[in-house]
Amino acid sequence: MTVPQQPLNYPLSSAGALEPPAEWAALRRECPVARVTLPSGDEASLLTRYEDVKQVLSDERFTRRLDADDAARITATESGGVFSNEMALAIPQSGEAHRRWPRMVTKWFTAKRMAALRPGIETMADRLVDAMVEGGQPADLKASLAFPLPVWVICDLLGVPDSDRDRFSYWSDALLNLTRYTQEEVDEAEAEFNAYMTEHLAAERAAPGDDLLGELIVATGSDGYRMSDRELVATGRGLLVAGHETTANMIGKMVAMLLSDRSRWERLLADRSLVRLAVEEALRFDANAGIGMPRYIGEEVQVGGTVLPRGTTVMCSMAAANRDETAFADADEMALDRSPNPHLAFGVGAHSCLGQALARTELQTVLDVLLRRLPSLDLAVPAEDLRRLEGLVVGGLSEVPVRW
Questions:
Q1: Closest Cα partner for 36 from 313, 393, 309?
Q2: Could you report the per-residue pLDDT of 59-76, keeping only the tens digit for each?
Q3: Going from the N-terminus, what domains does the chain have, and what CATH number goes with each?
């Protein structure tokens, strides 16, 4: 197909919930820096090539300062949302202060710590599978397993009760809004979430626990730095949103991808050693990954042979980059044994997702448990009938109907 001259409406649509937008290949080939219109009506530049996305995400000149006067607004609401609300900007966006924040948080998310969590995650996954089987088939894998498991994990890490998961889910959706919620609903969710985290932190301060937030309250950096209450609230809120929403959606999509071609599931049943590589390939192959990562440039920069003027907002589509034929052989094929697999699903460099070790642990554990417990698992509807989760920054499926 030929890329149209007018800006494309973004996010792009696709023929099926697991299928990539038809425009991706043409954009990479003909227009690697494309003009798009965001849900807000503002224009941005869309990157779809692997090297370009990797360049921008690795370049500290491209920042998250989406509150700049000339930055494009992402969402249909006038303000708020996960990218540009006041609390989202509480965490330093650049310089040494920005590098200091992840240093204090990432030690909680090392691969060694996550491996220690795995037995507990596996036990909880088994319990959720028990409940799903007891409830009978067909069942919605997303509601039964993919959503409650990451909520339980992140709530345990943060020391908040997972009995509040329905409230967390609503607040998260509102903050991840593209077109689903009104400004009033976003503002109300924002206020409620902040009040909740402020109250929780006050309780933690009175009696610090051995959870992440309890330790961050008393933690001191090597330079004597301690997080302010505003940073602690923003950190708790950000981890709660990111720690369950994206992983819950990815569990559902991963299982759907594997079951949409039954030979994939059968291959994993025959060779469980492929689980780790299969998870990485599901992350790369995910064509329904949301809007990508927005960045703002405060000076003129050249990307993909195009000069981006100062004030440009760039949408980095990691999902489109992960289908780039110049970076991955047979990029449109799901190869369960693909190795190496330098996908960009978690970003790259200093700005890569700090919770990626946790996400990988959860995805691998869930897949291991499902292969062991429900080898006959299958989709209860044709793959083409699966429906996308609409109106949110993150990509996902509205439900994942399964039988066994």
A1: 313
A2: 989 998 888 899 999 986
A3: 8-403 (1.10.630.10)
